[in-house]
Amino acid sequence: MADQTEKAFQKQKTVNLNRKVFTVKPKPLRHIKNVGLGFKTPREAIDGTYIDKKCPFTGNVSIRGRILTGVVQKMKMQRTIIIRRDYLHYVKKYNRFEKRHRNMAVHLSPCFRDVGHGDIVTIGECRPLSKTVRFNVLKVSKGPGTKKSFKKF
């Protein structure tokens, strides 16, 4: 059964909760999918009990368009993070490059548990999920200099 922390009953649209069980060992009722493009479905998405309709692995969102990378900046919102994308802009007059950056709001599915500041995330474009969110996290890799250590909170 899903984690019920919201006021509305949380369920996946594609799963019928009223089916009759005739087998000895019933498998859990969970809809998962492969997003393609060489990205693996996380184990937490397969085994977890969370419900997220905006998750690319268990929800109603398809990944199409651009695949980008960025560094995690802020994690103050629920299921949404801010990433920073650095790039170089060429100035023709001086024949040089200048550093620029762009912050983007990205949906972070609950299947990615241990994401922290400085982690490098790969994101994929999807339909607009809110006013500012148009991308979904597909893969998380630890940032440079991040050691696996005990964190109290």
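Above is the first protein from milestone M3; the second protein from the same milestone is given next.
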Amino acid sequence: PDSAPAAKTALAASLLTIGAEAARHVPEVVGNLQAAAVGGDAVLIDAAAAVGVAADAFFAWQRVAGAPTAEAREAASKALRALHEDAWKRLHGEGARVARSAADGGVVALRPWREALAICCLMRCALALSAIGFGGILDEAGSIHGGGGASAEAAEGSKALLLLDLALIVAGPAAIAARPLYAVASALSRALARADSPIGAEGKSQPPPAKRVRVTPEEGGAFVAVYAATIAAPDPRTSTLTTVRAELPTVRRPVAELPHGRGLPMEEFLLVEPSARSPFVLRGGCAAWPAVAKWAGLAFWRESPVGRRFVPVETDYWFERGYRLMRICDFVEHCMTADAKKEVPPGLSMGGYVAQHALLDVIPELADDIITPDIAHCGSDGYLLRQAFFGPKGTVTPLHEDPYENAFCQVVGWKYMRIFAPSESAKLYARDGDLRNNSALEPADILEGEASSAYGSRDAEDQVSGRFPKFVEADYVDVVLEPGDFLYLPKGWWHFVKSLSTSISIAFHFD
């Protein structure tokens, strides 16, 4: 739309092309939302109207011909920022909390504003990339610096990519704008990876230099915060994510185990009444996945386009300190730094943990590296939720139970899991209220609590005393999962999980 100066770099030229492609899809997705609002409820009509106001400013900027007009860009940017903030408040304010108390968890009431935010992010991305050469229009969000002094174009492109990933995280693969969001995010991540490629003068991969990584990405309220770390990166050609591993805990009461190489017992599984099913481990059950070898390498996350994508990182399990969006390549550096530290940071997330994230839906390229277990297709009505867990050594998921079956696949690293049958629930000190599927045990790290006798102890007469005496008597099974292992966890079984190294797991939830 504006007469941009000639692109000075290959990256700038790529970003301008990608911005034009993003802008090309805007009329279609805005029109589709407005068409859906015809005859829709009041929430959908309000969301479509808000998008329409911002889109008018965007289209006015597109219509400008001749010399670049800062006024048109600024007007469009201001309108889109207002829509972004409005949609975010609708999704996370008091009204959203009330909507989530509904039987459907607020799915219907909040869906229109998820659509609005996704379309807004697409427009903001298009505007920012199309303005390359005039100075960034997302500067209020800070900057993203890569190794070797990343260019202003790379910083602006990375912030635009954050917007696309935010849109996909919030709205999901069924969003009206999903198709262009996926296409533009894929193209943008490839362009950024090429610009940041550690290819030396001889055309061979070189170890990346020590670098300063600072991310202050585009925010949505408190959703995004600052992450900064200084690291001296090891050679990615030979390094893996699991260079540091904790001492393996003693497994006292092993989970039932199937021999390595045996197929999943589908007929046996289907003939057993769901309430009578028990956990079992299939050693090497997902060892044939390409992800098991591919995702273990540092080079994959540091150098590939996937590493430029953004993921939501928990800074605390209970969300008392919120969470932030980080590039995956930066999150991997966080994992390496956390693994090497002698001091354990406060909380259960080791300063950052990607948990219960629909990673395979946001980045479909990663789904090509996994194979859905047959058992996971046994849910009613085809229901299947795929969630990723990715974090450094020491991350803890406290004792809890889930309302669905779980086909749990350990892809990278080692994890310890302790499992309790539903019949032991009375001994597990469930919390009150909305968190009643979580245990109130303190400390939440069971291995730590047992080592310090924090829950209770037995005297000479075999009597138990302490803060949680019933828990000391609870029966359980436990297991250390290795790369490539498969665990079946039935619905309603309580489980505690601790990473023994940097770890990546994929859980397939079905019912």
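Note on the second protein: The radius of gyration is 25 Å.
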